[in-house]
Every structure is written in C-alpha cells, then in structure tokens.
TrEMBL record:
Protein name: Phosphoenolpyruvate-protein phosphotransferase PtsP
InterPro entries: PEP-utilizing_PTS_enzyme, PEP_util_C, Pyrv/PenolPyrv_kinase-like_dom, Pyrv_kinase-like_dom_sf
PANTHER family: PHOSPHOENOLPYRUVATE-DEPENDENT PHOSPHOTRANSFERASE SYSTEM (PTHR46244:SF1), PHOSPHOENOLPYRUVATE-PROTEIN PHOSPHOTRANSFERASE (PTHR46244)
PEP-utilising enzyme C-terminal domain: residues covered: 1-39
A molecular function GO annotation: transferase activity, transferring phosphorus-containing groups
Pfam families, sorted: PEP-utilizers_C
Highest taxon of source: Bacteria
Keyword annotations of the record: Metal-binding, Pyruvate, Transferase
Length: 80
C-alpha cells in the first residue's frame, strides 16, 4: 500500500493500468493532485520505459524528469 502513496511511483502504477490505489490518509491529497496532472498516455510511456530500464537509478531519473517537465518536481525532490 505504501508504494501507491509514493509520488515517485504513482505515474508508473497508473501507466501499468492500476486504477485502484491503497495508501495512508496523509498521502491522499498529494496523490489526487498528481493524478489530476498526469496524462494517461504519458504515464503509459513512462511505465514502458521504466520496464525497459536496466537499473533502478534509470527509473528514478526517468520519473524525476517526467515530474519536472510537469512542474511537480518539488513533490519528489526529497526522495531522490
């Protein structure tokens, strides 16, 4: 359940087709904000690229760039 509340993971989960997410109450507002600002097709592309990555650091950098391009980098910078 904690993965769904992590801003670094939300777009990937949505891109993989998850539609029901479980998280603690403190994460709900932030995740709702992210979901309102993430395009489904872009999330699918991110998920596909993440699955193709060879290293976890590649995935983190891809997600960070994805979020920065959408003006939401501040939500993840503390987690890098």
């Amino acid at each position: 359940g904690e993965m769904a509340g992590d801003p670094m993971c939300v777009a990937i989960l949505i891109g993989l087709g998850y539609r029901h997410l479980s998280m603690n109450g403190r994460s709900v507002a932030r995740v709702k904000y992210l979901l309102r600002h993430i395009d489904f097709e872009d999330a699918q592309t991110l998920a596909r690229r993440s699955l193709e990555a060879q290293m976890a650091t590649e995935v983190r950098h891809q997600v960070a760039a994805f979020m920065e391009r959408r003006g939401m980098g501040g939500l993840i910078r503390g987690g890098l």
